[in-house]
Amino acid sequence: MVNPMYTAYWNLPGGHVEEGESPSAACAREVRAELGLDVEMGDLLVVAWVDSDGLMPRVYYIFDAGEVTAEQRRAITLREDGAGQYRFASPERIDASLIPPFVKPMWEAALTARKDKRLVCIEVEV
Protein backbone atom coordinates (compact mmCIF):
# COMPACT_ATOMS: atom_id res chain seq x y z
CA MET A 1 0.00 0.00 0.00
CA VAL A 2 1.13 3.55 -0.61
CA ASN A 3 0.16 6.82 1.01
CA PRO A 4 0.44 9.52 -1.65
CA MET A 5 1.45 12.91 -0.31
CA TYR A 6 -1.61 14.54 -1.90
CA THR A 7 -4.24 12.51 0.01
CA ALA A 8 -5.00 11.33 3.53
CA TYR A 9 -5.83 7.80 2.35
CA TRP A 10 -3.70 4.74 1.67
CA ASN A 11 -4.23 2.87 -1.58
CA LEU A 12 -2.65 0.49 -4.04
CA PRO A 13 -0.10 2.02 -6.41
CA GLY A 14 -1.93 3.29 -9.46
CA GLY A 15 -2.86 6.08 -11.77
CA HIS A 16 -4.30 6.60 -15.21
CA VAL A 17 -3.74 4.84 -18.52
CA GLU A 18 -1.82 6.94 -21.04
CA GLU A 19 -2.96 7.16 -24.66
CA GLY A 20 -1.79 4.06 -26.53
CA GLU A 21 -0.93 2.22 -23.30
CA SER A 22 -2.54 -1.01 -22.12
CA PRO A 23 -3.97 -1.22 -18.58
CA SER A 24 -1.29 -3.75 -17.52
CA ALA A 25 1.51 -1.55 -18.91
CA ALA A 26 0.02 1.44 -17.07
CA CYS A 27 -0.07 -0.51 -13.81
CA ALA A 28 3.56 -1.59 -14.19
CA ARG A 29 4.55 2.01 -15.01
CA GLU A 30 2.77 3.35 -11.92
CA VAL A 31 4.39 0.76 -9.61
CA ARG A 32 7.78 1.71 -11.08
CA ALA A 33 7.03 5.43 -10.66
CA GLU A 34 5.69 5.18 -7.11
CA LEU A 35 7.96 2.49 -5.65
CA GLY A 36 10.89 2.19 -8.04
CA LEU A 37 10.11 -1.49 -8.68
CA ASP A 38 9.99 -3.25 -12.03
CA VAL A 39 7.27 -5.86 -11.71
CA GLU A 40 5.50 -7.94 -14.28
CA MET A 41 1.74 -7.79 -14.04
CA GLY A 42 0.05 -11.14 -13.74
CA ASP A 43 -3.63 -11.89 -14.07
CA LEU A 44 -6.24 -9.19 -14.28
CA LEU A 45 -8.23 -9.66 -11.07
CA VAL A 46 -10.84 -6.89 -11.09
CA VAL A 47 -12.56 -4.57 -13.52
CA ALA A 48 -14.55 -2.01 -11.53
CA TRP A 49 -16.95 0.58 -12.89
CA VAL A 50 -17.04 3.42 -10.35
CA ASP A 51 -19.84 5.97 -10.64
CA SER A 52 -19.36 9.14 -8.59
CA ASP A 53 -21.91 11.90 -8.14
CA GLY A 54 -20.92 14.83 -10.31
CA LEU A 55 -17.89 13.10 -11.83
CA MET A 56 -17.48 11.10 -14.99
CA PRO A 57 -17.65 7.36 -14.24
CA ARG A 58 -14.25 5.64 -14.18
CA VAL A 59 -13.03 2.14 -14.88
CA TYR A 60 -10.42 0.66 -12.52
CA TYR A 61 -8.25 -2.38 -13.24
CA ILE A 62 -6.54 -4.37 -10.50
CA PHE A 63 -3.80 -6.81 -11.50
CA ASP A 64 -2.02 -9.50 -9.53
CA ALA A 65 1.61 -8.38 -9.25
CA GLY A 66 2.65 -11.44 -7.27
CA GLU A 67 4.60 -11.60 -4.04
CA VAL A 68 7.25 -8.98 -3.30
CA THR A 69 10.63 -10.56 -2.58
CA ALA A 70 13.01 -9.47 0.17
CA GLU A 71 15.34 -8.12 -2.52
CA GLN A 72 12.52 -6.04 -4.02
CA ARG A 73 11.60 -4.69 -0.57
CA ARG A 74 15.17 -3.46 -0.11
CA ALA A 75 15.08 -1.85 -3.58
CA ILE A 76 11.98 0.29 -2.96
CA THR A 77 12.60 3.99 -3.53
CA LEU A 78 9.93 6.65 -3.13
CA ARG A 79 9.80 9.60 -5.50
CA GLU A 80 9.83 13.04 -3.93
CA ASP A 81 6.55 13.96 -5.65
CA GLY A 82 4.81 10.61 -5.28
CA ALA A 83 4.03 8.32 -2.40
CA GLY A 84 5.08 9.69 0.95
CA GLN A 85 5.02 6.27 2.62
CA TYR A 86 4.52 2.62 1.83
CA ARG A 87 3.69 -0.45 3.88
CA PHE A 88 2.96 -4.13 3.48
CA ALA A 89 -0.10 -5.43 5.27
CA SER A 90 -2.19 -8.55 5.14
CA PRO A 91 -5.82 -7.83 4.17
CA GLU A 92 -7.19 -8.61 7.62
CA ARG A 93 -4.80 -6.09 9.20
CA ILE A 94 -5.83 -3.13 7.03
CA ASP A 95 -7.83 -0.50 8.88
CA ALA A 96 -10.79 0.26 6.59
CA SER A 97 -10.83 3.90 7.74
CA LEU A 98 -7.41 4.39 6.09
CA ILE A 99 -8.57 3.59 2.55
CA PRO A 100 -11.03 5.51 0.35
CA PRO A 101 -14.55 4.12 0.99
CA PHE A 102 -15.16 3.28 -2.68
CA VAL A 103 -11.93 1.23 -2.79
CA LYS A 104 -12.92 -1.34 -0.14
CA PRO A 105 -15.26 -3.34 -2.43
CA MET A 106 -12.56 -3.39 -5.12
CA TRP A 107 -9.98 -4.78 -2.68
CA GLU A 108 -12.45 -7.40 -1.46
CA ALA A 109 -13.19 -8.36 -5.07
CA ALA A 110 -9.45 -8.65 -5.79
CA LEU A 111 -8.94 -11.01 -2.86
CA THR A 112 -11.87 -13.15 -4.03
CA ALA A 113 -10.58 -13.15 -7.61
CA ARG A 114 -7.09 -14.20 -6.56
CA LYS A 115 -8.39 -16.96 -4.27
CA ASP A 116 -10.87 -18.28 -6.87
CA LYS A 117 -8.50 -17.74 -9.84
CA ARG A 118 -11.08 -15.76 -11.83
CA LEU A 119 -11.82 -12.25 -13.04
CA VAL A 120 -14.36 -10.29 -10.99
CA CYS A 121 -16.33 -7.41 -12.52
CA ILE A 122 -18.09 -5.04 -10.13
CA GLU A 123 -19.97 -1.75 -10.15
CA VAL A 124 -19.42 0.71 -7.31
CA GLU A 125 -21.53 3.79 -6.61
CA VAL A 126 -20.01 6.57 -4.56
Automatic annotation (TrEMBL):
Native organism: Streptomyces alboflavus
MF (Gene Ontology): hydrolase activity
Similarity comment: Belongs to the Nudix hydrolase family.
Protein name, per record: Nudix hydrolase domain-containing protein
PANTHER family: GDP-MANNOSE MANNOSYL HYDROLASE, MUTT_NUDIX FAMILY PROTEIN
Superkingdom field: Bacteria
Keyword terms of this UniProt record: Hydrolase
PROSITE patterns assigned: NUDIX, NUDIX_BOX
A matching Pfam family: NUDIX
Segments crossing the lipid bilayer: none
Needed co-factor(s): Mg(2+)
All copies of domain Nudix hydrolase, residue ranges: 1-112
Lineage: Bacteria, Bacillati, Actinomycetota, Actinomycetes, Kitasatosporales
